[in-house]
TrEMBL record:
Positions of the WxL domain: 22-252
Domain of life: Bacteria
Keywords carried by this UniProt record: Signal
Feature: compositional bias, Basic and acidic residues: 55-76
Name of the protein: WxL domain surface cell wall-binding
Region of interest (Disordered), residue spans: 34-77
Lineage of source species: Bacteria, Bacillati, Bacillota, Bacilli, Lactobacillales
One Pfam family recorded for the sequence: WxL
UniProt signal peptide: 1-21
């Protein structure tokens, strides 16, 4: 949906008729200016995207990535992407922390630890906005490791075959009749193993409703259901880190 700014000056057609049969008339020009709304979307309640994100009744604003170090469990912050425009990712999961783990035989799976400093202790979510013209419909949300897991020391030891396991997320949309209810009619979500090999589709619009995926959509996961799968005998006694690229892709009508 494109935000429209109208600059209109509309005057009635003036027509003066006199007995002498002379006619005097004038017209005026009407101008309409269309502009793309590039205002960043504010945080929404991931379980009801028609409502603002609140903490104890107080609205929460997005904080920039540069404020990450200021986050505290007693004064949590919600980090936004800073993206603007009618088609944008507003918020992605801030932190995947698996703590100190012990390697075992076989493939090991470790559960993520939620961080209350980022409002991620129980749920994690992605927020996206689609206010494009009604002619432009459909999108895909994808994720991929930017590189393999790498140790943070000078050796830069790599782990091969690692996957971040995301269960099937719950999609909601601000324009549905009940935004607090899962939107299975217009958005499909998928349980996926994210890796460094190729972008993985986590959610996408479906069906043919002209408003599918429009407005603000959220995809949520229970923190306890997100895990990391690591092939055994690969990891060393080191700290490892990884980064994820989140991508919102246009998906033309099928």
């Amino acid at each position: 949906m494109k935000k429209v700014f109208l600059g209109l000056l509309v005057l009635p057609l003036i027509q003066a008729t006199v007995v002498s049969a002379n006619t005097d008339e004038t017209t005026n020009e009407v101008n309409v200016s269309f502009a793309i709304d590039r205002t960043p979307t504010k945080p929404v309640n991931p379980e009801n995207p028609s409502q603002p994100f609140e903490d104890n009744g107080k609205k929460v604003e997005f904080s920039p990535e540069s404020d990450r170090g200021k986050a505290d469990k007693d004064k949590p912050i919600l980090i936004g992407t800073g993206n603007k425009g009618p088609f944008a990712l507003d918020h992605v999961i801030t932190e995947f922390d698996f703590g100190d783990v012990t390697e075992k035989d076989g493939i090991d799976t470790y559960t993520v630890i939620g961080n209350p400093a980022f409002y991620e202790q129980e749920k994690m979510f992605v927020q996206l906005t689609d206010n494009r013209s009604s002619r432009d419909t459909g999108w895909k949300l994808q994720a991929q490791f930017i590189d393999k897991l790498v140790s943070t020391d000078e050796e830069k030891h790599q782990l091969v075959g690692v996957k971040l396991l995301l269960p099937k997320g719950i999609a909601r949309n601000s324009l549905t009749d009940n935004p607090a209810q899962e939107d299975t009619k217009n958005i499909a979500t998928f349980a996926q193993g994210i890796n460094d090999e190729a972008p993985t589709t986590i959610a996408e619009t479906i069906a043919s409703d002209r408003l599918r995926g429009k407005g603000v959509s959220t995809i949520t996961w229970a923190t306890k259901d997100i895990s990391l799968q690591v092939p055994a005998q690969l990891a060393k006694e080191k700290n490892y880190s990884f980064a994820i690229r989140w991508t919102l892709v246009t998906q033309p009508d099928k």
